[in-house]
Design goal:
about 200 residues; alpha/beta; Maf protein; six-stranded mixed β-sheet; about 30% helix
């Protein structure tokens, strides 16, 4: 079978994060009917893989099987060079069960201070997976590099956006117009690859 997604297809987005669901809808140019795993009351699977690609695939397959719909999952996170790539795949876990990213950003800052780090380079990675119920799956990965800035700036975006300044810019993702961020983000880069593969 040709792996293609027709515009108007109903997709389940394997996330319980409203910010991420909204951003994916915008990146997908609202060409699909999206329903989130949270809205469907689907359980969040344990992210037991060791890579973004592995976790995205795991979440997409779990959502596809539980819902009977084609599922789209994103696994993304912030990696900091001076922290050996942490928080990486544990980016959400650093925010705790309450998803408190103010606390998570503080933790990054404290770890950098403890390490007496001078290198503030960091990158965001996004792995996007699309899985068909009982069928195949496609996974792609995108990345955007930048530096960390403290204190956090801006209240747009979500997660670690207020401390990340992408290369070539002076605003954090938290300060940027959402359209400008979406044009260059790790998710946008991953989606460009997904679009080339499936649309």
């Amino acid at each position: 079978m040709a792996l293609e997604l027709e515009p108007g297809t109903r997709l389940v987005v394997a996330t319980h994060n409203p910010g991420k669901a909204r951003e994916l809808a915008e990146i997908l140019e609202n060409r699909f009917v999206l329903v989130s795993a949270g809205d469907l009351g689907l359980a969040e699977p344990d992210e037991t893989e060791t890579t973004f690609v592995g976790n995205a695939l795991l979440k997409a397959r779990a959502a596809a099987e539980a819902s009977g719909l084609v599922a789209l999952a994103d696994d993304s996170g912030l990696s900091v060079a001076a922290l050996d790539g942490s928080p990486g795949i544990y980016s959400a876990r650093w925010a705790g069960p309450e998803k408190d990213f103010t606390m998570a950003m503080k933790k990054v800052e404290e770890r950098l201070e403890e390490a007496a780090a001078r290198d503030f380079s960091a990158w965001f990675t996004s792995a996007l997976a699309v899985a068909w119920p009982g069928g195949p799956a496609v996974v792609v990965e995108g990345r955007v590099d930048g530096v960390l800035a403290f204190p956090p700036r801006g209240d747009r975006g979500f997660g670690y956006d207020p401390i990340f300044v992408p290369d070539g810019h002076d605003q954090t993702f938290g300060e940027m117009d959402p359209g400008a961020k979406d044009a260059m983000s790790h998710r946008a880069r991953a989606f460009a690859k997904l679009k080339a593969a499936l649309l």
